[in-house]
Amino acid sequence: SFCGCWWFSWGSTGRPKYGTVFRLGVAVLPFTLFVLTENNILGLLCKARIYAMLDLGLIVVVVAGMVYLVGVAHWGLEGALWGALVGNAVLTVFATLVIKATVSLSLLKGNDVWPMVRRMLQLGLPLVPAGIALWVTNFSNTYFLLQLVGAGAAGVFRIGAQLASVLSLGIWAFQLAWAPYSLSIAREPDAPRTYSRIATLFT
Question: Hey, what's the torsion of the CAs at 64, 68, 74, 79, to 10 degrees?
Answer without folding.
Answer: -40
